[in-house]
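Researcher: Please generate the 3D structure of the following complex. Treat every line as part of one assembly.
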Amino acid sequence: MSAVLTPRTDSPEAPAAPVDTTSAWSRWANEHRKWLFAAPAMAFVAVLIIFPVAWTGYLSLTDAEGSVRAESEFIGFQNYLDVLTDTDRFWPAVWRTVLFTGVVLFFEVVLGMAIALLLWRPFRGEKWVRVAILLPLVATPVAVGMMWRLIFDPNIGMANQLLGWIGIGPQPWLAGQHSALPTTMFIDIWQWTPMVVLILLAGLTSLSDEPQEAARIDGASSWQRFRHVTLPLLMPTVIVAILLRGIDALKTFDILYATKGRGGGSFHEVETLNVYAYGLSFDYNDYGVSSTVLIIFFLIIIGVMWALTYRKKGLGR
Amino acid sequence: MKPSKPYRVFRNSALVVVVFALMAPLLWMIAASFKTNVDIYDTAKAFVFSPSLKNYETVLQQANYLEFIGNSLWVAFAATTLSLLLGVPAAYSMSRFSMKKSALVVLMARVIPGVSLLVPWYYVFSNLKMVGGFTVLILSHMFVSLPLIVYIMMGYFDGLPAELEEAALVDGLTHIGAFRRITLPLSVAGVATAGILSFIFSWNNFMFALVLSGSDTKTLPVAIFDFVGYASIDWGGLMAAATVVTLPIMLIALFVQKYVVSGLTAGATKG
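Model: Done. Output below.
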């Protein structure tokens, strides 16, 4: 920052301003610092994010497929018509996406809340519990998928061995046509409940003790205190947790691909919208249709987000 | 008030269950990485086996993992550094000038499905013959890192009182000087938080590298699939590979636990 230290010599008509010791460039930079600071990041976002999303929108109106150098034709909304009437792959994928997100969110929030309440007040050994909470969360999702693949292997996995000890027969887990999706949900819940715990714990720690204390003096039971004091005060944080986890759950890809491979398995049993769009793009090179799926998927995400933030504002009042 | 004894007994046993449920699978993975494939298939040797380093030999020597570790480190380091250079000043501007709409645009990147970027990127960069190179891979990881850093740093700058900068202005510093000499040194913890989180997310990222990396630039999460064949899986090698990918990032996270937690929960309590 040598400019700051350079004595100003270029304007003799302002000798009364010894504070202003800046060069012309530095003055310009200071006046325009708002955009100077923001512009590089905004340019990155515009060129590498907004432009591709716009292009995805354009591709969804063409019949682009095959090589990336191939010619494509503008076909209007034909892809949208095809996709929205596709009850073979598209609608089942929508249903699986909704089901997956709904189920994992429910369990992650309920379990997350329970664990956060357990951890709320200080206790001995807290440090070690926090370590256990953090580790699944930072583990590489693909590796987590592989880890569970071994545990859930129908022949050599620990899961069936444990069931055997309590007298239950072996289950197909990830290999079963109907059990694969619930098993992947379980893996997602294992990995991401800790995230909800951390967020809710941060919320709980920031609450003041007085409403709790007042309710206790008024003779409220611990359930009543939770239901009518803690939960309403914590609600904005709960919504943030749902919002952050919900967006990621809708877009789940890594553990589904790691456990079931391309197309969500041979019967597409775990094929969500994200997995479907990925397969259309990079296994079938059907860029036009995949762009259509992506635009619809994107609209669904925006819709869910909008609904949740709307609700959050309503609760803030 | 001290919790009652029955509650403490209940809480402690519940926490033991939670810790066991979270840790056991990870320990199982690490244990399996020290077993030979024969031992993995033998359920009688689930807990008692003679540990072997053979899987790690396979992973580090035959499967070329040292190179993939290098690739992962370089991509995560470069994407994080570049995102910090772009993101920290941008977050400062957006925080101080309340640029709500610009902030929203950057944060939208957290919402957009990654595949919808990959398709146009693949189009453009394969025509430029850049797919498979480090440049595209690093840029794609910035798509995750930059919004994350802007999000965390905006919250951090919002929490720093503007009075400190005003005092610096009175003392003769320029606005940019005040940012460099006052605000930035006070934000070291925030920058560390953002940088660590960005590194973890980039290290763990799978989908971008799956499409955009080539044989020379393959990162660890993609390299794991080398152990999954069409006919059979080399379970021992796979678990060793999974451990090699996960253990470093878990150890880093333990050392900087405070930052990781504050980054993951950033913005959660603003209401």
